[in-house]
Amino acid sequence: MLENKIHYRTCNLCEAMCGLKITYKEKKVISIVGDKKDPLSKGYICPKSQALKDLYEDSDRLKTPIRRSENGWEKISWIEAFDEIEHQIKKIQEKYCNDAVATYQGNPNVHNLGAMLYGGPFLKSLKTKQKYSATSADQLPHHVASLKMFGHQMLIPIPDIERTDYLLILGANPGASNGSLLTAPGFSQKIKNIQKRGGEVINIDPRYTETSKISSNHFFINPGKDALLLLSLLHVIFEQGINEKTHLSNHLKGLSEIKEIVKKYPPQKTASIIGINGFEIQKIAKDFMKSETAVCYGRMGVSTQEFGGICQWLINVINIVTNNMDKVGGAMFTKPAIDLVFMTGMQGKVGNFDRYRSRVHDLPEYSGELPVATLADEMLVKGEGQIKMLICTAGNPVLSTPNGKKLEKALEQLDYMVSIDIYLNETSKYANIILPSTNGLETLHYDLVFHQLAIRNTAKLSEVLFEKDDNQKHDWQILNELTERITGKKNSLTPEKMLDSMFQFSSYKDANLSVKKLRDNPSGIDLGALQPHLTKRIFTTDKKINISPKFFIDDLKRLDQELFNVVDEDKINFPFALIGRRHLRNNNSWMHNSELLMKGKNRCTVLMSSKDAKNLSITNHQQIRIISNVGSIELPVEISDEMKEGVLSIPHGFGHNREGTKIKLAEENAGESINDLTDDHKIDRLTGNANFSGTRVKVRL
Ligand SMILES: Nc1nc2c(c(=O)[nH]1)N[C@H]1C(S)=C(S)[C@@H](COP(=O)(O)OP(=O)(O)OC[C@H]3O[C@@H](n4cnc5c(=O)[nH]c(N)nc54)[C@H](O)[C@@H]3O)O[C@H]1N2
Ligand SMILES: Nc1nc2c(c(=O)[nH]1)N[C@H]1C(S)=C(S)[C@@H](COP(=O)(O)OP(=O)(O)OC[C@H]3O[C@@H](n4cnc5c(=O)[nH]c(N)nc54)[C@H](O)[C@@H]3O)O[C@H]1N2
Ligand code: SF4
Ligand SMILES: [Mo]
Asked: Is the entire prediction scored with pTM above 0.85?
């Protein structure tokens, strides 16, 4: 009789890094529960963790390379697949130029140790400027703000929610997302704990969300107007008078400039545009200042805006001028065991911005990438440097980037495409060859990125639970083989060896960290609470924190023109503003094939306020057409007073109704893609980030 066995690992499905205790027998998962001994998550897990079993067992998951042929998809050997891809890359780069081969890296790359370690060398080997990723449909403004202010793109402050007295949340819904650029398992409980300690949590969102429900107070905001709100909050803060002698004052520059600038934005002038009463704006600013400790946190909803760059800059400014930056209970910086900021910073590799621009729309490069909103046009618009081939790794840009229908047209006319993906889905179906990788429980994992953003410094290794089949390959093996074929150089390092060598640079010398030590401590190792230490790692050339970078200040002209514009044609023709939403049991576009997660009622609906529904004589569940300037989709309405009047909400990641995919359950729960409505030309022109907040739409019955 075989006995049940126990395996400990970190869930890699979202950013929360929850510790799991998995009971299994042979190759069968028996149960997944929270690991109480995990020093970070202490037993917390969410329902999505259960889907790791479904993912492992999913019969739609690809296990061998497949090639598109006249007779449909045919299985081919790895050798044949690599030979053909190598040949195509070389042929296309020779015929056109290196930039004719583009890459897109999707979100699961950052949740995958192998892809993190071997993705960089692979991209480098291609010598192409046409590199894209989900970053520019997500957190790009955070990186740009950190680079301009602190001198390092990864020096991202995180709110110390376990010790703060006042948390101001804009454009984030951790109640559904479990947190982002803030690894804090059990985020919702931590929000409740702030209030139990006598503190306050204020939530600003055009929807009354899962997070709003557990906050002390919620304010509806008009989508896309947060930059004005932040300017007005600063106006009140400076009007009240700040303490200019703080632990950071000798390290700051630009204080008088920002003080002068925000004079132009009193709440009386901005409130009606923002949609929040001027007295309330004043109160938020004053309460923030009054609190012993306070922190402002803004995520997706404020990053993917027309002024996402300005928003992330001003959030940092608020935390700095109220003396809450780099302080317990404020915004803090981590010191993980493998510290990417330290390791790259010491070599002077702190990030880059705008070294070159995109060919078609003149948009800025960030860290070797171009904005993904321009990917389709870079494929469609003829000329030197036009993209002819795409290599897509763990990404589904047809559903996840603005104007997905246009991208489909662009993918259709490419000379060649490769997807490294576990499914035949809406994007990979355009590939000539799909290279399938292992996933989740089949992989060795260490979170290089999310330890860097975690509320507590810990270290944890997840071993392979189920050995892959002989014919399967890990992402790192696929990427390594491709790199070797392009460069002609062998690399025999394994992820394990690389990890071990990175621990040698760890600042936790006494902990003697190594792969072996982590193997001996399968629930993880605690390295302690976050400590203030910013002043030792400012990477700007003059070693000052710049709170008034010219880069952002210059963009205020664009903000003044756009946000104070009273005659807005778009608003007249398209009276509603559309926003997205996340659901606890969705994960972007790719987990709708899990039976456990798909239980329950249809989630792909349009939320509309009862007043708007009444005005338009729309009844609950009625099918309506939503139309933007780029496309239209049909969905059932869910009347809900969660919504601000004039604002509609549709979740992203659906739209599995495209022909020719092989994700059976997802196809049965197809929904429609919100990104068939979002506009690839309406972006934050400053940073190049996509703009999903407040797409103008109209409704037809
Ligand atoms: N309108 C709107 N659009 C959005 C958003 C929004 O809020 N609203 N959110 C944006 C955000 S924050 C993000 S991060 C992006 C996400 O954008 P993407 O990363 O492009 O999309 P995902 O849905 O995460 O798709 C991940 C792909 O990776 C595959 N995959 C999963 N695991 C593995 C693995 O281990 N290895 C390999 N090789 N493949 C794997 C899946 O099958 C899927 O095809 O979407 C963005 N798009
Ligand atoms: N269950 C689940 N968890 C996930 C994901 C998932 O798809 N499902 N995706 C993961 C990924 S890739 C990411 S990046 C994170 C994102 O995690 P979060 O940053 O928490 O993102 P969302 O949950 O989309 O929350 C964004 C909020 O912004 C609001 N919003 C929209 N427009 C505006 C605006 O103009 N102003 C303001 N103030 N608010 C606005 C929306 O109503 C929404 O409540 O979640 C991760 N976790
Ligand atoms: S919160 Fe995220 S990391 Fe934690 S169990 Fe859920 S999906 Fe996994
Ligand atoms: Mo994301």
From this structure: yes
